[in-house]
Every structure is written in structure tokens, then in C-alpha cells.
Amino acid sequence: MNRLTIVSIIVTTLLFIGCGQNGQSNSAAKSEPAKSETIAEKATKAVQAVKESASSAVAKTAEVAKKTTHEVTETAKKAVEATKEAVAKATGAPSAKFAKCAGCHGKDGKTKALGKSAVIAGQPKADLVKKIKEYKAGTRNVAGMGSLMKGQVAALSDADIDAIATYISGLK
Ligand code: HEC
Fold first, then answer.
1. Which atom of ligand 1 is nearest to the CA of 128?
2. Residue 161 · residue 132 · CB < 8 Å
3. Interval 113-161: pLDDT, tens
């Protein structure tokens, strides 16, 4: 019985040290505070390391997800553009509408109309839509030929303008 009591006291003390708690109030051994501190430190460091690796893993995952989303979006955008172009080509509508523009701007849109306009091929679609709508409204006149252009685009609907702008923007 006596032995058992001693053993259980030792075990209890060891557990106490192991927990690393309240080392100072236990005056039984001087090495205890240092030991429990080390264990506590180790535990803190381990927790810190786990935290760090977890958060960096989360950050990496987020980055990868972002990149993937971006790539998918870009690919989808390109596919949509390609489809639009293919449809436009198949129906022939925008290029047919562009035929009368080609007389001055060139078949490929790269001629400076009457030596006065800017090259329209490849301009951003939004810019082309804006410019054509301004000519239609009679509010654009860059080289003194605004009224001539107004006559050219007067009959175009918003849908026509959109289609033609897409077509001209795609001329490279
Ligand atoms: C008779 C010749 C002629 C025809 C046909 C013509 N244009 Fe023009 N275009 C011009 C001239 C000249 C200008 C410059 C007008 C100015 O002074 O602002 C111009 C300017 C433009 C511009 C602005 C360019 C820039 O960046 O400043 C666009 C866009 C344009 N034309 C589109 C068209 C479209 C679309 C058609 C057909 C529906 C067309 N044009 C038909 C002569 C023509």
C-alpha cells in the first residue's frame, strides 16, 4: 500500500508538471517551473506553427481558386467572342451593313476615309458605338465631315450599330 501511494504521488506530480500549469506554486522541485515552461513554450510554438501553415495553406488555396476563376472567365469570354464572330460571319449581317462604309473606310477598315478620318479597324467596340451614335445624333465632327457621316449612319438602329461596331472592332 505504501509503495502504491508513493507511486501515485510521483505520477500525480509528473502529470502536474506535464500540464505545465501553476509550476511556481508547487515548491516540491526547483526544476519544475523551467520544465513546465519549456513544455508550454513547445506547445505554443507547435500551435503557432500549425496556425501559420494552416493560414498559408488557406491563402494558397484562395490564390489558386482566384487564378482558376480568372482563367475560366477569360476562356469563357474568348469563347463568347468567338461564337459571336462566327454567328456574325455566318449570318453575314454586319459585314453586309459594313459594305457601304467600306467605300470610304476600306474593306478592311484601314483606310483613312477621304483622307480625313482615323483608321477605324480594331478600335474598341465601345468607342465605335459611341462615335457612330454621336454622328447619328449630329454631335460629332472631328474633321469637318461630321454631317457626311451623319448621313451614312442615320438609318442604323442601335442593334445595327452594335453589330457593325463589333465587326469593325474585329477587323485586324
Ligand atoms: C463617304 C465616305 C464615308 C462613308 C461611306 C462612311 N464614312 Fe465613316 N467617316 C468618313 C469621314 C470623312 C469621317 C471623319 C468625320 C469627321 O469629320 O468627324 C468618318 C469617320 C468615321 C468614324 C470615326 C473615326 C474616328 O475614330 O474618329 C467612324 C467610327 C466611322 N466613320 C464609321 C463609319 C461607318 C460604320 C460607316 C458605314 C455605316 C461609315 N463610316 C461610312 C467617311 C465615310
1. 29
2. yes
3. 999 999 999 999 999 999 999 999 999 999 999 999 999 999 999 999 9
